[in-house]
Amino acid sequence: MDRAMELAHLAEAERHIAEGKRRLERQEEIVAELKRLGHDAETALCLLALFRQVQADYVSHRDRIQKALEE
What is the pTM of this model? Predict the structure, then answer.
């Protein structure tokens, strides 16, 4: 893959990470609110765990792109 394409993929990965960060923050707020109100937060916590895994995948993907660009 050429450098321009790798840079485009890197930019996309950075956008995904930023969006994921916002998603995580919002889900954490939802979990806190559910708990504060005394509601069952189990489903919200499962979704939060999923968002965290997806975020880790985004970061790993970004890191692989950065490594390829350094080579």
Answer: 0.89
